[in-house]
Amino acid sequence: MLIDGWLHNGDLAEIDPDGHIRIVGRLKDLIVNSGGDNIAPAPIEQEISLYPEVEQAVVVGDARPWLSAIVCLNEEIESARHDQVLRDVLRRYNQDKSPVLQIRKALVMTEPCSIDNGLLTPTHKIRRPQVIALYGSQIDQLYSSKSL
Question: ∠41-88-93 over CA atoms, to 5°?
Fold first, then answer.
């Protein structure tokens, strides 16, 4: 649908100083934190997934005071090291981010998102609502506890 010369298709985009348009996410995936900030999780998830320790990431924080993440770590990382690896990944990610984009806490996925478990679409996109629903009680604990 065209409105005022713009195609409204549900994509979120940014226009850089050179006038180039870059798609950064989907409107339906937009996180609105408790402070009213609008945050596109896709660029954050993509950046976190670039770390060699991370296979997949889902950022959460809708109606919450800050962002958290659900992370699938590389299968070669021993479970005894998960907490330390998560802290290290978050420290590196948060290093140059504004407070609203920082991820304060994270939890490890019990299994990777896949088509078989219904957490990945046939085009290999993570089904955010299903992941968030699956880890709902653990997400609540992240926001009520003081540790990682």
Answer: 35
